Structure formats: structure tokens, C-alpha cells
Amino acid sequence: MSQVIYARVPDVLKDAVDEYRTERGTTLTSAVVDLLERGLVSTSDAPSVAELELSLATTSAQKTEAEASLRSARLELQTLRSLSERTSQTLGRCPRPDCSRPITGYDLLVTGHCPYCKQALTDLLRLKAPQPEADSDQSRPGGVSERDFLLLLGALGAVVGVAYLTSKS
Ligand SMILES: [Zn+2]
Fold first, then answer.
1. What whole-number distance in Å separates Cα of residue 99 and Cα of residue 119?
2. CA 121/CA 6 separation, integer angstroms
């Protein structure tokens, strides 16, 4: 079944349709039907193209967000890793003279006692006033290396800093 459409078209359009028809060696009617069908299909596809573009924009925004989260997570992991490494290092020795085994940042800050004799380590956290020469021996039993302790505090501070920045974002 078919019907007739009477339509007046500009010369340019008529010439273009003739060219299309000649190129394909088809009739004017077939050429017009073919072109009209294609035009209708692309018109009905238009909304879905807009939807695709919107979805693409949303996806790339989500990707950017995910990349930022990944960067921030990597930074947090790196900071935690360096704290963990710093925490497992020997800071000093057990204050009990008959023990004097190595004490780590973990023992000092987390468990609070010597892992061998269970001696409480809270005294080691008491910061001493700086004394010249005599106190500089870091391997002295019962002492904590001030330098190592400050490095541990620095690593701890970095973790607190990252946590703070994360809570702000
Ligand atoms: Zn001990």
C-alpha cells in the first residue's frame, strides 16, 4: 500500500535528491522514500542521543570524582604505612634494669608496656628537660631516643592531618 505526498521543495533540495538517485541508479520515488525514512529515524533517535550525551557527561564526572577519591585513599594508605613502619621501629630500651630489651613505638603508644617483662612504659613518655652532654647517650637503658620519638610523633601527626583534611572535604 502506498500514498502520494505532494510537496513543493526548493531547487537545491530537488537537485540533491536527483544526484542521490543517479548515484544509486534508483527511481526518484525510491530515493525520496529512502531519504525520508532515514530522516525520520534520525529524528526519532535524537532524544536518545541527548540522553547518551548526558549519561556520558555524568559518567565522566563520576570518573573524575572516583580518581580524586583514589588519590586521596592512596595518600591515606601511604601515610598509614609510614606510621606503621615508624611504629615498629625500636625507640629505646625497657626501663627495668634486668630487662632493658628494645621498646618500639607500638609498645610505647599502644600497649603501654614492655612486651617481655610487662613493665609499664608510661614513665618513658615523661619528657625530660634538656640536659647537656650526659643525657645524649641514646642507647642508655631505660631511655627513649628523642629523635626517634619525634619522628614517630611526626608520622602520627601526618595521619591526624590526613584524617583532618578528609573530614573537611
Ligand atoms: Zn622489659
1. 9
2. 100
Count of CA atoms in the C-beta half-sphere (13 A) of 49 = 6
| pTM: predicted TM-score of the whole model, two decimal places | 0.50
Confidence of residue 144 (pLDDT cuts 50, 70, 90): confident
Is 101 in contact with 94 (CB distance < 8 Å)? yes
Report whether pLDDT(156) > 80. Answer: yes
CA 126 to ligand 1 centroid distance, Å: 17
Distance of CA 117 from the midpoint of ligand 1 (Å):
4
Other C-beta atoms lying within 10 Å of the C-beta of residue 144? 25
Identify whether 139 is part of a domain.
Answer: yes
Q: What distance in angstroms lies between residue 91's CA and the mean position of ligand 1's atoms?
A: 13
C-alpha 102 – ligand 1 centre gap (Å): 8
* Residues 58, 130 share a domain: no
Contacts 24+ apart (CB under 8 A), 2-6: none
Only one residue has cell 583534611, namely 165
Domain with 28, as residue range(s), is 11-67
Q: Looking at the predicted structure, is the pLDDT value of residue 138 above 50?
A: no
